[in-house]
Design a protein that fits this description.
The protein has about 200 residues and is of the alpha+beta class. The protein has one domain (about 5-195). It contains 7 helices and 5 strands. The protein has helices spanning about 5-10, 25-35, 50-55, 95-105, 110-115, 170-175, 180-185, and strands at about 70-80, 80-90, 145-150, 180, 190-195. The strands form 2 sheets. A 3-stranded antiparallel sheet has the order 3-5-4. Strand 1 and strand 2 form a beta hairpin. The two termini are about 25 Å apart.
């Protein structure tokens, strides 16, 4: 994101628009998104006992898969150039993710605005794997409750918003349904959104 984009984001989250993304901007952004989340929060905190009771066991490669439900997207996305019109997501957050996409459609009502926001590039949802670099901690993708969008410009090690480009408006659409944005809450991996409550 260029400096003008950072200043615009700072103003949107209610902090000084100086183009420097530091601790005050991070705190303001997280508070801004938390303030948009439903109360009570619809999803448990990652790793908690409530999380395991709510979502059940994670998926296993070539084995158990969490209970999923297909949702029909209100606009077409693309995965490696192929059209995607439906996604399978954990049944406990399927309705919520559909509403996220309906919100995205409302804030980006045509294809050109969706392209500008980077929300037409789908990079995956269910993947029964461990977190990168971990030998014991499972990725949220293993529960079918996390989605990646526009990974090429918002990768795992790309800092947000200094280098990554995920718009705050996209994060707001997810926050309004209780989904955490990795870019806002851990400063990188801005492609990643998960159905869990903030700490």
């Amino acid at each position: 994101m260029n400096q003008a984009g950072i200043i615009r984001t700072q103003k949107r989250v209610g902090t000084v628009g100086d183009g420097f993304w530091g601790p005050k901007s991070i705190a303001a952004c997280q508070q801004h998104l938390k303030g948009m989340m439903p109360s009570p929060h619809p999803f448990p905190v990652e790793g908690s006992q409530e999380f395991l009771e709510f979502f059940g066991p994670h998926g296993e490669k070539n084995g158990y898969a969490p209970p999923g439900r297909k949702i029909e997207l209100p606009f077409e996305m693309y995965y490696d150039g192929s059209s995607v019109s439906k996604l399978t997501v954990h049944e406990k957050c399927a309705d919520s993710l559909l509403r996220v996409f309906q919100r995205l459609e409302a804030v980006s009502p045509d294809k050109s605005s969706r392209e500008a926001a980077g929300i037409l590039i789908y990079n995956g949802l269910y993947n029964p794997r461990l977190k990168r670099g971990s030998s014991s901690s499972w990725s949220m993708h293993a529960w079918m409750n996390a989605i990646d969008i526009n990974a090429g410009r918002n990768g795992n090690k790309t800092s947000w918003p200094v280098n990554a480009t995920m718009p705050i408006e996209v994060m707001e659409c997810f926050a309004q349904e209780g989904w955490l944005s990795a870019g806002a809450f851990w400063g990188r991996d801005a492609m990643h959104f998960q159905a869990t409550a903030p700490l």
